[in-house]
Design brief:
This protein has a single domain, classed as Immunoglobulins (Immunoglobulin-like), CATH 2.60.40. It is an all-beta fold. 0% of the residues lie in helices and 49% in strands. It comes from Pollutimonas nitritireducens.
Amino acid sequence: MAARPMRIRAVQKDDVTEVKALMSHIMETGQRKDSEGNLVPAHFIAVLEAKCNDKTVMSAQWGPAVSRDPFLSFKFKGGNKGDKVTISWKDNKGESRTDTAEIR
């Protein structure tokens, strides 16, 4: 499922780092029916965490209401150019993905 890497951009300006990430995930609600009328099982990102140099700067608990291929944007203080920002997620089926970007 998590074959495509996240597209992460982290830019530091005036002591504030802005992070934007595009994730590839089906984010199935569990309420949709397939062509035969059977419910498609829920499959969504449940836990998300962003770290800068191993320090958590953002965490979230998501559910089935988040759209397919979610986009995430947030800002934090304390990052410097060249530092690494790592975003990790785990879904309700146990699959996970972690990707890293350097602050520019």
